[in-house]
Amino acid sequence: MTETRETTHFGEQTVALEDKQGLVDKVFHDVADRYDLMNDLMSMGVHRLWKDAMVAELAPPKAGSRPYKVLDMAGGTGDIGERIVNASLGYADVIVSDINADMLRVGAERAKGWRYPGQVRFQEANAEELPFESNSFDAYTIAFGIRNVPRIQKALDEAHRVLKRGGRILVLEFSQVDVPGFDAVYSLYSDQLIPPMGRVVTGDAQPYQYFIESIRKFPDPAEFSAMLGQAGFRRVKHQSFTGNIATLFSGWKL
Ligand SMILES: C[S@@+](CC[C@H](N)C(=O)[O-])C[C@H]1O[C@@H](n2cnc3c(N)ncnc32)[C@H](O)[C@@H]1O
């Protein structure tokens, strides 16, 4: 009898579901030290505007009678965590959590120069199995992280579990560009320029080949919104940025 193993995609490749995380971890291990520089180069700095827009949508409080706790999952080098704390003028308590210790190491180093370094904690964790108590966070954010997680639905279920009632999830992710005219230019840029740029900056084109391919495999906004609904989130909505290059999803645990 032949055993059938569950498969998924790693970029354009089909891989066993249990192998994907190791492959993803290697990608981010390889690029960790150059990750922030590459983000600026690849997006020509625009990722900063999308991240600012995400944090503006969250609008974290600047004061209150109890702590405002945020889990920034797949938080990598801490861009979102820093922005949330700054937007709250140091009031928010943020855990930047990621499965990759190298990304967190770079983040912790960067945090030494931040305005409110004491308000951000870095903690290694897998989005699929969070080591946090149920009903413990006011907000859960994840930027450009969810498409890398092998079992996306499991991660969304976990996000719902750890949020308090009344808590909010925000997911920022790349999407398929389908604006006539712009889609061809964007495809050309993604396929022809980003991997070679990755080779020059990080010494390896492969991780950036994976980044491009993984964007193409990510569910479209309607499908992903349905997954948020399946996890229990309500009032799910999304907005697109820069000709649909990125999409911000929002949902509430009611
Ligand atoms: C493209 S980076 C995004 C980093 C950061 N949020 C940002 O916007 O710059 C994706 C991150 O997802 C993390 N990641 C991948 N799989 C994960 C998982 N199962 N659990 C937690 N983090 C994961 C990677 O280690 C990586 O740091």
Low-confidence stretches: none
Tally the helices: 9
**How would you describe the shape?**
globular
Oligomer: single chain
Largest sheet: 7 strands, mixed
CATH-scheme architecture:
3-Layer(aba) Sandwich
Q: How does the helix and strand content classify structurally? A: alpha/beta
The N- and C-terminal alpha carbons lie at a distance of: 47 Å
List all distinct small molecules, including ions and cofactors, that are bound in this structure: S-adenosylmethionine
Number of domains: 1
Q: Give the averaged pLDDT, no decimals.
A: 94
Q: What is the class in the CATH system?
A: Alpha Beta
In terms of topology, how is this protein built?
Layout: E1 7-10, E2 13-16, H1 17-31, H2 35-43, H3 46-58, E3 69-73, H4 79-87, E4 93-98, H5 101-111, E5 120-124, E6 137-143, H6 152-162, E7 163-174, H7 182-202, H8 206-217, H9 221-231, E8 234-241, E9 246-252
Helix pairs in contact: 2-7, 3-4, 6-9, 7-8
Residues 21, 24, 28, 74-76, 79-80, 98-100, 103, 126-128, 143-145, 148-149 line the site of S-adenosylmethionine.
Pathway: Quinol/quinone metabolism; menaquinone biosynthesis; menaquinol from 1,4-dihydroxy-2-naphthoate: step 2/2; Cofactor biosynthesis; ubiquinone biosynthesis
GO molecular function: 2-methoxy-6-polyprenyl-1,4-benzoquinol methyltransferase activity; demethylmenaquinone methyltransferase activity
Enzyme class: transferase
